[in-house]
Design brief:
- The structure holds 3 protein chains of 3 kinds.
- By secondary structure, chain A is an all-alpha fold.
- Helix content of chain A is about 60%, strand content about 0%.
- Chain A has a domain of about 70 residues: Cytochrome C biogenesis protein (Helicase, Ruva Protein, domain 3), CATH 1.10.8.
- The longest helix of chain A has 28 residues.
- The radius of gyration of chain A is 37 Å and the shape is elongated.
- The N terminus of chain A is likely disordered.
- By secondary structure, chain B is of the alpha+beta class.
- Chain B has 3 domains: about 160 residues, no CATH class; about 240 residues, no CATH class; about 100 residues, no CATH class.
- Chain B contains 20 helices and 10 strands.
- In chain B, a hairpin with a 3-residue loop joins strand 8 and strand 9.
- The longest helix of chain B has about 30 residues.
- Chain B is globular, with a radius of gyration of 27 Å.
- The C terminus of chain B is likely disordered.
- Chain C is built from 5 helices and 7 strands.
- In chain C, the strands form 2 sheets. Chain C has a 5-stranded mixed β-sheet with strand order 5-4-3-6-7. A two-stranded antiparallel sheet of chain C has the order 1-2.
- Chain C starts with a helix and ends with a helix.
- The chains are: A mainly alpha, B alpha+beta, C alpha/beta.
- Strand 1 of chain A pairs antiparallel with strand 1 of chain B, so a sheet runs across the interface.
């Protein structure tokens, strides 16, 4: 039979429309991929990366990223606005420090007062290793070199075998 | 009435502790009579403290809200198991738990020290008695859990919902068993310093006690981390919180102490150093108690602070630690030098291990106390958090972890560097290879991940090399005999070291490859995480014994195969009107799928946080292996053999007892 | 002998610091703004949203900025003290109504009294962030040149008012 393109096309379109309407009416049929909570996940990741090293001032034992307090939400919004305006991570940190002081940084900035904090452990390590090395050298010198004679070697071997016991 | 009995029992316990202390330090004509009192006093003290603790538990279980502490931490709707847990949910009760566990360790020392002479045991019990006196006084004077609330409250203020969890049942007791357990090593060391008998036999007696305490502390810390992971909802497992650090510091010192005791026992070397470590480990336990309860550091774990308590604990800490360090300063120089050893030898490697562990411990202490130091000096307020600790702790521990592979292979006294290098060639090659291949196989490569996996493979493969060379070199016929000939100590070391490797694998992989997704989902929506598909099936209301919850249902499938259904909740505890999230975790050997229910967003959608955490279970699995290793070491047959030879004189190992190093069984005490 | 006394000495230093630590308050965050110019702001007035007030309008006099909100329980505690201070007329007090609904705020003032020359409506809390506000209530003392001189964290007590704030105000007034 001769194909009537106009009629066949219209019939197909009508079927598609009906099918789509039916689909729209049945919620359960539609299985959507979950949408990210925020509009811009990449920006959110940048905000969280900065917020993870800042201290929440209200719940003082949480990072700004983890805290659910109202101030934390406000400050995270501020960070996002600043980043959108083109600020760098360091500028955002400076903004926070200007308002809340050094307390807000979980990674203490390097000042004269924090030199001991940042370099102390490594200086201690160096000092302790040097001291330990010197102690080792002294200990080695103190212990006299004792060479065993062949007879003593044999006696040692016998004793050790005896200590292994009947097996 | 019963709370008053409990209170009275505590006062009597204090009296017993005083007698116990006096017995330990008796001198002169009547010394023997006093010494004979030490053990009975110790046992009586334990019984009385147990009665007091029982009275408090009774008050909680019976909902006696006329006791102030019960009214503050319990509630009539609280399930019974959490009523018992609430006993140690606040400051007063947890200090009573401390006292109970201290009394328990005292009892254990008095029971398991039959081989020692009475005077020595009395001395050790005397030192422990002094510590008990201090804590009992602290409890009775500043932290009385039996204080009454009159008129009685109609109902209690409820246990903090965060603590209403199985983890809370077991984490504090385990932790305290570890913290307090270091008092035994401390008492042994102080007693030995007083008597001037810091020798290998002292080390031999101290070692199992220290190891058991260390096992408990390892389990306690691992449990705390595990609990925080599933309870707090942000998927992290360590936050470098001041109280967490306060438990890590004694653990590091305790690990150093265990290794140092091995040297002192076998070679008679490091005697002063080991005694100092024993004092330091317990001092750090006490310091932890101070930091948590005094309010000097702000922490999520901190109990409500009271300046009076802070002053008491600090004074006690100053007295106990200052006194023992003064004793050390006075007596230690009189102790002679131990056997010498070469710059390359097992002793020197263990010394390096000790030094590195202690520097790491000092770094953690510096970071934890720095805000306080800066504030006290008037230089402002700053915070020291995870970025600092991670930057400092990892580089210091890395060499120690590397040496962990070399040390067990080195001989005592003198080891050949060339010989060691030859034996470790294979292990080094495998580690370098894994550093490159494994990260690429898992997805991506970063220096940190490569380094972590390299260290873990290094430790694991050196364990295997060690075991292989031991078994091959053993003279006994047949594999079974050779394996059976190795000591519990040896297997303990292998298992514990292997546990460290497992831990590093877990920490590295979960740090490098975890995926977090914050999504909004309506019923029917799905989320794809690699091969896993998570389908959200809506939220229902659910009622619990003392809460109302919104319970979500999530269906997890993989490649079309259904795996499980997860039910995260958002609870509201009715008594305190506190909200809380209960995460739902699908655990597996190689990965966790972790879901946390967020906020309702409109009529049909909810915000959800889904994590994919690969190998996170290996973190705690590794810790368990470490504790298992310690247990194996304590079960070594030489400790059991010694118990059977009750009449034998105190064993003195020959200097240079190489029997352990050569894989032969430890020479039994009876042979001496 | 000297080497074995080292641990004792180190411990002594630690104890000294910890004893000092018992007198400190680790959760209080001092303001980095003290000694610096107050952040500029322009906010609508509470109750008269058409009019605004800027920091520059307040140059030339010493004034107090009291951060408050109708949802803040501790503000009720300090309110009598603030009312007394306002009544004495020694220093003008301006309110910063932080993250509050103007209707609620006005109702609160009507119920408990209005000590403020004017209250500024900071609905989104941005000016609060600029001032480093992390809890409510807080009070700032600002001098004639617009420099922040002192910050009171927490409720203003009669003792703090009498012993710290008023003497400072008198000194700044000249």
């Amino acid at each position: 039979m001769a194909e009537d393109p106009t009629w066949g096309h219209g019939w197909r379109t009508a079927c598609c429309l009906v099918a789509l309407t039916l689909c729209g009416l049945c919620n359960g049929v539609r299985a959507r991929e979950a949408q990210p909570l925020v509009a811009d996940p990449e920006m959110q990741a940048r905000v969280m990366a900065i917020a993870a090293e800042l201290r929440c001032l209200v719940c003082q034992n949480e990072t700004l990223a983890a805290s659910q307090s109202a101030l934390a939400l406000d400050l995270r919004k501020q960070i996002e606005q600043q980043l959108t305006r083109g600020a760098s991570a360091q500028q955002v940190r400076d903004y926070m420090v200007e308002r809340y002081g050094q307390f807000v940084l979980y990674r203490p900035a390097l000042h004269a007062s924090t030199v001991l904090l940042w370099f102390g452990p490594f200086a201690l390590l160096a000092g302790v290793l040097v001291g330990g090395w010197r102690m080792l050298r002294r200990s080695a010198q103190a212990a006299p070199e004792v060479a065993l004679s062949d007879a003593e070697h044999e006696r040692a071997r016998r004793l050790l075998r005896a200590a292994a016991g009947p097996r | 009435m019963i709370p008053e009995f409990g209170h009275f029992a505590l006062i009597l316990a204090l009296a017993m502790a005083l007698v116990q202390s006096a017995a330990g330090f008796a001198r002169g004509r009547h010394a023997a009579a006093w010494i004979a009192l030490a053990q009975p006093a110790a046992r009586a003290q334990c019984l009385l403290v147990a009665i007091a603790f029982g009275a408090l538990v009774h008050a909680f279980v019976q909902n006696d809200f006329s006791v102030l502490y019960v009214a503050q931490h319990s509630n009539s709707m609280l399930p019974t198991v959490y009523r018992v847990t609430a006993v140690w949910g606040g400051h007063e009760g947890s200090i009573l738990l401390w006292v109970l566990i201290l009394a328990g360790w005292t009892l254990a020392v008095s029971i398991f020290s039959q081989q020692q002479d009475d005077a020595t045991v009395a001395r050790v019990l005397g030192v422990m008695g002094l510590i008990s006196c201090g804590f009992l006084l602290f409890t009775l004077l500043t932290s009385n859990p039996f204080a009454r609330l009159l008129p009685a409250a109609a109902d209690g203020q409820d246990l903090t919902p965060l603590l209403q969890d199985p983890g809370m049942v077991i984490h504090p007791p385990m932790l305290y068993m570890g913290y307090v357990g270091f008092v035994v090593a401390f008492a042994f060391a102080v007693a030995a310093l007083i008597d001037g008998r810091l020798d290998a036999s002292w080390a031999r007696w101290s070692r199992p006690w220290t190891t058991v305490a260390w096992c408990f502390l390892t389990c306690g810390i691992a449990l705390g981390s595990f609990w925080a992971y599933y309870e707090l909802g942000w998927g992290g497992w360590w936050f470098w919180d001041p109280v967490e650090n306060a438990s890590l510091m004694p653990w590091l010192a305790g690990t150093a102490l265990m290794h140092s005791l091995a040297v002192t026992e076998k070679r008679g070397a490091f005697r002063n150093w080991t005694a100092l470590l024993a004092i330091v480990a317990f001092a750090l336990s006490l310091l932890g108690t101070f930091l948590v309860r005094s309010g000097v550091l702000s922490s999520v774990h901190a109990f409500a602070s009271d300046p009076k308590r802070g002053v008491f604990i600090l004074a006690f800490l100053a007295l106990v630690v200052g006194g023992s360090l003064a004793l050390f300063a006075w007596r230690a120089p009189k102790v002679g030098r131990g056997a010498g050893f070469d710059p390359v030898s097992r002793e020197s490697m263990l010394l390096a291990n000790n030094l590195l562990l202690l520097v790491a411990c000092a770094a953690v202490m510096l970071g934890t106390l720095y805000p306080l130091i800066i504030d006290a000096l008037g230089l402002g307020k700053l915070s020291v958090g995870p970025p600092y600790f991670e930057a400092v702790f990892v580089p210091i521990m890395a060499p120690a972890l590397f040496l962990m592979g070399v040390g067990p292979l080195a001989r005592w006294r003198r080891a050949g560097l060339g010989d060691l290098a030859r034996r470790l060639r294979w292990a080094l090659g495998v580690s370098a290879l894994s550093a490159v291949i494994a990260p690429l196989a898992l997805g991506r490569w970063t220096p940190l991940i490569g380094f972590g996996l390299m260290l873990a493979t290094w430790i694991a493969s050196t364990c295997l090399v060690n075991l292989a060379s031991r078994i091959r070199a053993h003279p006994a016929p047949g594999w079974r005999a050779r394996f059976a000939a190795q000591s519990g100590s040896y297997y303990g070391m292998l298992v514990a070291h292997f546990g460290v490797a497992v831990f590093i694998v877990g920490a590295t992989i979960v740090g490098g490859y975890a995926v977090e997704r914050d999504v909004r989902m309506a019923p029917g929506d799905t989320l794809t995480l690699g091969a896993y598909v998570v389908r959200f099936d809506g939220v229902r209301e659910q009622r619990g014994p003392n809460y109302v919850a919104a319970r979500g249902t999530l269906d997890i499938t993989r490649n079309g195969q259904p795996l499980t259904v997860l039910s995260p909740e958002r609870r509201l505890y009715t008594a305190s009107n506190t909200p809380m999230t209960e995460t739902a975790i699908y655990r597996h050997f190689t990965r966790d799928l972790y879901v946390s229910l967020g906020e309702p967003l409109g009529p049909n959608a909810w915000s959800l946080r889904v994590y994919y955490k690969p190998f996170v279970g290996w973190i705690w699995g590794g810790c368990l292996l470490m504790a298992l290793g310690g247990l194996l070491a304590v079960l070594d047959r030489r400790y059991r053999a010694l118990r059977h030879t009750a009449a034998a004189p105190r064993p003195v190992p020959l200097p240079g007892d190489d029997s352990i190093a050569l894989g032969l069984p430890a020479v039994k005490a009876a042979r001496r | 002998m000297k080497r074995t006394t080292l641990p004792l000495l180190v411990f002594g230093v630690l104890v000294a610091f910890m004893a000092a630590g018992l007198t400190l308050r680790p959760t209080e965050v001092p303001s980095p703004l003290v000694g610096k110019a107050a952040p500029p702001f322009t906010l609508p007035l509470l109750g008269a949203p058409g009019r605004t007030l800027s920091a520059s309008d307040l140059r030339g006099k010493v004034w107090l900025l009291n951060v408050w909100a109708s949802w803040c329980v501790a503000c009720r505690l300090e309110h009598p003290t603030v009312l007394d201070a306002a009544k004495s007329g020694a220093v003008p007090i301006y309110g910063l109504n932080y993250k509050d609904k103007p209707a609620d705020a006005l109702r609160w003032l009507g119920r408990f009294g209005d000590p403020y020359v004017a209250s500024l409506s900071d609905v989104d809390g941005l000016v609060g962030i600029d001032f480093g506000v992390y809890g409510v209530p807080e009070t700032f003392v600002i001098d004639k040149a617009g420099v922040v001189r002192h910050k009171v964290i927490g409720p203003l007590t009669p003792e703090t008012l009498r012993d710290t704030v008023m003497p400072l105000v008198r000194r700044l007034d000249g």
